[in-house]
Amino acid sequence: MSTDVVRRPPGSLWALAGFGLAVLITAVIGGLAAADAGGQYAALAQPAWAPPSWLFGPVWTVLYVLIAISGWLVWRRTGFGPALWVYAGQLVLNALWTPLFFGAGWFGWAFAEITVLWLAIGATVVLFARISRAAAWLLVPYWLWVSFAAALNFAIWQLNQGAS
Question: What are the pLDDT digits (tens) for 55-106?
Fold first, then answer.
């Protein structure tokens, strides 16, 4: 059960910056693996419900901010414990998806990986909810977006079978 007692360790704003940096590294790894993601995305056969490529940057920017704040809120309550290890694991999985999908063009492997990412986000939400309901709720938009991205990944994989 969540508690209203907040632990405020010294340097907690530095910790927030650290969580921001961890999320930024996750984003940069994806960005380096997909220098021409917009062009690649446009060249793929896509379902009618696929969003335009320009939408991904703003959405991920907001999500990454929420992800960083969420981790920081949990850290403030408990320090670095099991919930944050799972959180770190889902960040690694997040960073791996883009190189698989755009870097290598392995749409099937990317779908398998995003499925594991989806499960890891769910585990993080459950663990965070025991510590901070606010932290857990901050991850829900991310989990929903990854749900959508997984469906899009699957559809693109199916529509581009000859290309991957």
Answer: 888 898 899 999 999 999 999 888 888 999 999 999 999 999 998 898 888 9
Where does 12-26+51-159 sit in CATH, by number? 1.20.1260.100
HSE-CB for 140 with a 13 A CA cutoff: 7
pTM over 0.70: yes
Residues 6+ apart with CB under 8 A from 152: 46, 47, 50, 51
Distance CA 128, CA 119 (A): 14
Nearest to 164 by CA among 56, 46, 39, 44: 44
In the chain, domain spans: 12-26+51-159
For the beta carbon of residue 125, count every other beta carbon within 10 angstroms.
20
Q: Residue 162 and residue 143: Cα distance in Å, rounded?
A: 30
